[in-house]
Amino acid sequence: MGSNAVHCKMIRSTFTIFGAAFLCLLAGRTALAQVELTGSWTPRNHEFLTGDGLPVDFTGIPLSEEGRIRALSYSESQLEMVEHQCQGWPVFYLVQGPFGLRISSETDPLKGNVISYTIGGWEDRAPLTIWMDGRPHPSEYALHTRSGFTTGTWEGNTLVTYTTHMKAGFLRKTGAPSSDEASTTMRFYRHGDLLTILEIIEDPIYLAEPWILSRSFQLSATPQPPIGPPCVTAYEGSVGPTAPHYLPEKNPFVDEMTKKYGVPRDAAIGKPETLYPEYRKKIAPAAPVR
Amino acid sequence: MRVFFIVTLVTLLFVSAQRPAAGQNVTAPAAAATTAKASAPIDITGYWVAFVTEDWRFRMITPRKGDYQPVPMTQEARKVADAWDPAADEASGNQCKSYGAGAIMRLAARFHITWQDDNTLRIESDSGMQTRLLHFNSSLQTASSPGERTWQGYSTAQWEKPASLKIATTNLRPGYLRKNGVPYSENAAVTEYFDIAPIPGGGQVLLVTAIVDDPQYLRQPFTTSSQFKREADGSKWDPTPCTAK
Question: Is residue B180, in this structure, part of any structural domain at all?
Answer without folding.
Answer: yes
